[in-house]
Amino acid sequence: MRHIILKSKKKVFGNLTGRNLSAFKGNGIDFREIREYIYGEDAKKIDWKISAKFQKPFVKEFNEEKELNIIICLLSSGTLHFGSTKLKTELIEEIVALLGFSAVKFDNKVSLIIYEQKSIVHTKPTKTQKGVISIVDKVHNYDFLGKKYDFDFINYLNKFRKSIVFIISDFYKYPKITLKHETYLIWIRDKFEENPIPFGEIDLIDPVSLKEIHTTLNTSSVKNFTQILKEKDNEFIKYLKKEKIPFVKIYTNEDPFYKLTELLK
Asked: I want to staple 175 with a disulfide (CB 3.0 to 4.6 A). Which of 103, 136, 151, 195 is the partner?
């Protein structure tokens, strides 16, 4: 984990500063009140619809909200405990570190939710590098085996005030994402999952049910599996594009920094 922390901090705070995650730079505004226009003010501030109603000029006042609230939501599943190059969970640690350090760099709050069907880990929002390290440590020490998520995480997330939300999973099952938040989806996969090699007869352990499985991975079964997975993934991609939900797929053999930069620029 130390290596992940140091590498992520270097990328966020080091020589690549100019290419940091731009979604964290914007300021929000919070409506405060409507008041009468004061002579000499910028006429662009006048709300003409309200002014027409009252037959005199009015302006809307806003509080500038510089601090953004960032929520990283990791959907827990035993399938994340896999990797041919490195574990998907290791890639997730790096992604969480990059998002966390980028958030606090711009003086924003960041928190982590690890959502599992039977229990939920939710850290307190932090604006410090020490807090981000603690968040990454939560992911590092979390046991994903035997875990699964349900789609009630949507209702759980919608309880919070409007935020920037990153949902991380390998999405072997996916929900209809009806969130009030500004939402980004980070899709984690390993190349071997999408293009497995025929091994013949093999004993496996289901990472979700933890049951032993004896199966045969021959050319025919592998071809059938990859075809079904491709169709499901394409269906998900079609849905995300229709709903205009930004997403990126990151493989375990890739550098997540550049993929995240492209997602958020």
From this structure: 151
Tell me the C-alpha distance between 240 and 235, whole Å: 9
Give the rounded distance of the alpha carbon of 259 from its chain centre.
13
Q: First and final CA of the chain: distance in angstroms?
A: 27
Instruction: Give the tokens for residue 75.
Output: 């959907």
Whether 124 is in a domain gets the answer yes
Strands, DSSP E only, in the chain?
28-36, 58-65, 69-75, 109-115, 120-122, 164-169, 182-189, 200-205, 212-217, 247-251
**Does the reported pTM lie above 0.90?**
no
Taking the C-alpha atoms of residue 187 and residue 196, their distance in angstroms, rounded to an integer, is: 19
Is residue 174 within 8 A of residue 154, CB to CB? The reply is no
Q: Is the pLDDT of residue 28 over 80?
A: no
The total of structural domains in the chain comes to 2
Identify whether residues 233 and 254 lie together within a single domain.
yes
CA 18 – CA 243 distance, rounded (Å): 30
What is the CATH classification number for the domain harbouring 183?
3.40.50
Q: Distance between CA 64 and CA 70 in Å, rounded?
A: 17
Is the pLDDT at 27 greater than 70? The verdict is no
Which residue type, as a one-letter code, is found at position 189? R
Q: State how far the Cα of 191 lies from the Cα of 85, in Å rounded to an integer.
A: 9
Structure token digits, residue 173: 């099952």
Assign 213 a pLDDT band (cuts: 50, 70, 90).
Answer: confident
Q: Whole-angstrom Cα distance, residue 120 to residue 114?
A: 6
Mean of pLDDT values over 76-103: 95
> 83, 42 in Cβ contact below 8 A?
no
